[in-house]
Amino acid sequence: MTHSQTIASARRWVETVVVGLKLCPFANRALEDGQVRFAVTDAENEAELLVALRSELNLLTSDAAVETTLLIHPQTLLDFYDFNDFLQIADDLLTDLALQGIVQIASFHPDYQFGGTAPDDVQNYTNRSPNPMLHLIREDSLARAIGAYPDVAQIPTRNVALMQSMGSTKARALLARCAETK
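Request: output the structure for the sequence above.
Response:
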């Protein structure tokens, strides 16, 4: 898959699932305003991904036009458990760069699995994406969005209920449509 196809797939997922299903009520404004950066790395291992992550963090914190970045890494950390372990390394990088409290990293993966759930539990689809990706979010932007939203605490509960009402078959098919190359 080319970079442009990977980005198209990620954009379809954001538009169709994240915004379309209102999984994140804050995402639409940044997307409409063109402030979401879709970046693809050819990293083939954790060390290369860490270099790409550092670069994207530097860009995010130095370019006011970029509100949030989706760093898509289709060639590494394909195993969810390896991906999940890498999140601590990513968090350590935030500390090393003195970005704790400035940038937050959220995670999405084709095989995402919340702790305490079975791999096929439909609620895992709230964080499943066509490719592994790290979502770099400016914390000040997130704080403003949260402050303007009436009941942030209900978002995860609403998302799980939505996925349960859709069912695994429909959720899986929706994700597969987003992942298609066109």
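The mean pLDDT is 95.
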